[in-house]
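Assemble and predict.
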Amino acid sequence: MIVFNSKPNNYTIPLKKLGDLIYHEGPILSLFIDDHSNMFLNKWVDCDDNTNHWMLSSISSFELSQFYHKTISLRQYYKACNQWAIIEIDNYLKIRKLYPLEHIPNAYLPKEDSFYSDILYTEFSNSLRAIYINNLAVISKHKSNVYDILELKIASITNSILDYANKSSKDIPLKETTLQEAAKNLSGPKTKNNSKDILPKSSDVLEIVQLFRALNHNIRKRILEFIGSNPGVNLTDIYTSLKIDKSVTAQHVAILRRSNLLTSHRKGNIVLYATNQKKLEEVQAAIDTLIEERKIIYQ
Amino acid sequence: MTYKYQDEYDKLSEMCPPKHFTKQDISPVYRWLFDEDDSRNFLPQYHRNPRRFNNVDDQLKCTSMGLSFFKDLKGAEERHNELSKVIPNIAKAIGTHTSKGFILESDGVSGDFGHHSHFTHHACETDVFKERFKIVK
């Protein structure tokens, strides 16, 4: 493993994990987001007997879109990237060491033909890609400075103050938003020149990603359609009518419930399901809004 | 059926192994290994040192306590190649050689075959695999 002069730290990265893009017996490439909706890739790059090295890099929605459209490879993204750091983290995103380097080591760069591949990337990634391919995401070139994230946190620890917290407090307070409102946020201003788009809050993105993930599955679509046509059915009705294994049905129903796409109520020992019409209407409205806003932006 | 890591499975909020995993005889199967007799060969990622994790949820923890296998050699090789394109060092984490062996119904439960014929297996005992799997490439 490459040995660097390390800069020891001990703090948790202030990022929220959106999901793994590549997973094999553990995360390999993951997507994170900060409180300001800046996105970051965290790629496993190396290990020895005691530690793992990861490369944390900032990625704009424009770059992610290019990658999902296969316009650039992952190597091209990293070669052009000037916002990255090599870090050692533990299992809970606590940074043990930070390596300030001028160039990404060659051994950590993906190969030339590292273009997007449906069969290598996860279901989460394929769902996210569908959002970008269908022009449902805001495209902006804005991205955050990785070292701002890392250094600000150091400052806040050593001084017990709160540069970072002060910045966060300027955010719009979190509140319940409808999906349609979230979609409006996602679409950004209705101008052609929207390079300084304000990105949506991470909670909006998370909710929309979660909803699209829930909807983007053939079995779940069938279950939703069936319950929509037969409100008040129970689990047995669903799996016998659709001829799906009981446990598989239960898992998919649980995902739909967690996404608030289904409502349920108990009658004795039996749980009865119906579709959440309000949420489905919100989803429909959100999609309509996104499509409409895109039309305006590209006109 | 009691699994090798049953105590840890019991602590997870998600059912582990997942309900749809089934007992199956599968032969041949392929798995990436390090050198013969390497202690990491049949150790799930979750139990290796260092663990390769970043804030996993219980569902992913469960997956990471399973072992990865492939139903066919071509799939195993293709996935290794695809992963190497993104992470040139990937062999250090997942293995340097391809081995061939078999899984019996009594060994544990296996999930569905996915892309590249990959599947996850939750074993009752992993020592049996050491004798059964021989490096072929």
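Chain B has a mean pLDDT of 91.
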